[in-house]
Structures are given as structure tokens and as C-alpha cells.
Design a protein that fits this description.
Length: 354
């Protein structure tokens, strides 16, 4: 799919009301005509289209090269708008909306059938969220539409955290990219299923399990997060390979000395190695290319840097990439989830080598 002359449109983020911003107005008119546009959110850039229009959703799938059996998140501008498309909003869901919207939390609810079935992938549920980015909210408001919006990248590639990432992936495939600067959270929203008790995390993200539990009590974690590719996905990001860099990625469980030893063995085998490591390890791995995820004590910084870091490595420069691992809690758990998907589950452990 080619044919568009893709343009970058800068949003003036210094003003309070962006609904009348010329770039936002242009993008809103395109959405009303059934086109798709890329726009910033606080997590990653999204590729949005009218969630009620089959043709718009088909354009999203075509632009991304994404299989159409994977559901899409619907972005809305408030709880009242969510009620237009939800069949029911349980008390727990409303508690979460009041606590975390606008913000990086997607809530799965039963829909009332008014959305395109291409959005829901045949399910009786849909994930909805209210993004915190002012440009995103202005665009939804100006278009007066629910926007189905996966990440604005080619399917399988690292998600985009800047307008340039979007342009690199989708140039010629979409008409407009709204440029609102770099995103703040850096990984996608947490997705929770609020149609059951207790609420269940379907995808870790910008809101931690601990934060959710402080609002609604016990929160379960979907076992399909452990790479069950046969399960029918209830949430985006639960099916197919995601976030892959240009070269194969392997996770390394162990200390800095073990990491350096793994790199040494790869180089001895004739491979050019890349290292995705904590700031403290830069200069110690022996890899041909090292990229920092920030201090080991700051997993939130790692989340912000992750997708940009994965895009730095090029197959022409390295044959394999080794990456550090994170504790499976808080925002670090979300980073670990994305790394596991990017690696396709490949990992080596110091314990296994003893």
C-alpha cells in the first residue's frame, strides 16, 4: 500500500485549547471523511480511524500490515462518550475510570454493537481508554468520533514514541502525522478486563497492578500473557510477534559479568553483538554497539527509552542483540513484557549455565 504524500503537522502544544489548532482541524476533517491519521498519546503514537466505520478500520489494518483478527483499542474523550458504546459499565470499571482517566489505562467492557465489528474482531467486548495527551483529546473532540487506534507503526516493529518513528514506518501509507513531540510513558497502556471479578490484567503497561489494587482491591493477571499463541486475544498486544528490532534479540538473566561473557561467546562465534543495557554497564559489555536504557534503579526511564532504543540497532551493523531483564513488577514488569515479546521468548540465564 503506497500512494499518500505523508505530511508531518506540528501541533502547538504551548496553548491550552488545541481543538482549534490548524493541524488538529485538518486531521479531524480527514477522520470524518473516513481516512486514518497518526497522533500522539502519552504512551505511544496511535494510528486512528473512525471506530464506527468499517472502511476506516480496514485502512488501519492495511497501513500497518496487521492481521484483522486482532482487536483495536477505542480512544474516547470522557466517560460519557464511553457510555455511548458500552453495553454496561460495572462499578469497578467506573472506579478505575475516575481514578486513572485520562491516562494509560484501557478498560475492556461489553459493547452495545454500535462499533465496527472490525474493531472488536468478533468479540462481544471492546477496550476503551481516555488518553491524557492534550493533542489526542483535542483530536477526538474535534472529530466527535471514537477513534480506534493501535500503535502507529508497521506490524511487528517497535512501537513509535516520536512522530519521526511514525514517518519512518508509514510514509506513503497515511496522509498525516500529528507531531506532538516525544511521548512521556513510552510503553502502551495497561489493559484490564472489567467484565469479570476480580478485574484482570490482560496487558501490563503504564498503570501497575499495585496501583489498580489500591482502587478496586484484588486484581488478577491473565495467564495468556505467558505466550499462549493459541488463545483468542481479548486485548491488543496478546497475539503475534511484537516490538521486534531489525536483528534477533535475546534476554540475558544474570549480573554484568555474565552479560559480558555471553557477548564474548557470541563474538567468538563470529557474530557482531549489540547490547541493550543499564547505564552502569555502558563500556563493560564488549559489544560492538551499546545502547543505554538509563539507570538500573529507574525502570520508568527504561520504559520511555525502550522503543527508541530497539530502533537504533540495525541488522547491517549487528547480528544479534542482547538485553538486560527487569523485575516483573510495576512499570518494569511492562518493560519486561515488551522485551519478552521482542525476543520471542528467547533468553539465557546464569543459573542455567551453572
Amino acid at each position: 500500500m503506497q500512494g499518500y504524500k505523508t505530511v508531518l503537522r506540528q501541533v502547538d502544544t504551548s496553548v491550552d485549547n488545541l481543538v482549534d489548532d490548524p493541524a488538529v482541524e485538518e486531521a479531524a476533517q480527514l477522520l470524518k471523511s473516513g481516512e486514518v491519521v497518526a497522533f500522539p498519546t502519552e504512551t505511544v503514537y496511535g494510528l486512528g480511524g473512525d471506530a464506527t466505520l468499517d472502511e476506516a478500520i480496514a485502512r488501519i489494518y492495511e497501513a500497518k500490515g496487521r492481521p484483522s483478527d486482532n482487536p483495536l483499542i477505542v480512544h474516547i474523550a470522557g466517560i460519557e462518550q464511553a457510555k455511548r458504546y458500552a453495553d454496561d459499565i460495572p462499578p469497578g470499571a467506573e472506579q478505575l475510570m475516575n481514578a486513572f482517566w485520562p491516562g494509560p489505562l484501557t478498560i475492556v467492557l461489553r459493547h452495545n454493537g454500535s462499533l465496527s465489528p472490525k474493531v472488536t474482531a468478533g468479540l462481544d467486548t471492546v477496550g476503551m481508554r481516555m488518553p491524557a495527551d492534550p493533542a489526542a483529546l483535542a483530536l477526538i473532540t474535534a472529530a466527535d468520533l471514537p477513534l480506534a487506534a493501535p500503535s502507529a507503526n508497521r506490524s511487528g516493529r517497535p512501537s513509535p514514541t516520536s512522530a519521526r518513528h511514525v514517518y519512518d514506518d508509514l510514509n506513503g501509507r497515511i496522509p498525516v502525522v500529528l507531531d506532538g513531540g516525544e511521548t512521556g510513558v513510552g510503553v502502551e497502556s495497561t489493559v484490564v478486563d472489567a467484565t469479570q471479578t476480580p478485574v484482570m490484567i490482560l496487558r501490563p503497561g503504564g498503570i501497575s497492578q499495585e496501583e489498580l489494587q489500591a482502587v478496586v482491591g484484588p486484581v488478577a493477571v491473565d495467564p495468556s500473557l505467558a505466550f499462549d499463541q493459541s488463545a483468542k486475544p481479548k486485548s491488543p498486544g496478546m497475539k503475534y510477534a511484537h516490538y521486534a528490532p531489525d536483528a534477533p534479540l535475546v534476554l540475558v538473566d544474570g549480573d554484568a559479568a555474565f552479560f559480558a561473557a555471553v557477548v564474548h561467546d557470541a563474538k567468538a562465534a563470529g557474530k557482531r553483538a549489540g547490547a541493550l543495557v543499564f547505564e552502569e554497564q555502558i563500556g563493560t559489555t564488549g559489544a560492538e554497539q551499546e545502547v543505554s536504557l538509563g539507570p538500573q534503579a529507574d525502570p520508568a526511564e527504561a520504559a520511555r527509552r525502550l522503543y527508541d532504543a530497539l530502533r537504533v540497532f540495525k541488522r547491517s551493523e549487528v547480528d544479534i542483540i542482547y538485553a538486560v531483564t527487569f523485575a516483573d513488577s510495576g512499570i518494569g514488569g511492562a518493560v519486561m513484557n515488551r522485551l519478552l515479546k521482542a525476543a520471542g521468548g528467547r533468553r539465557v540465564s546464569a543459573e542455567d549455565s551453572n
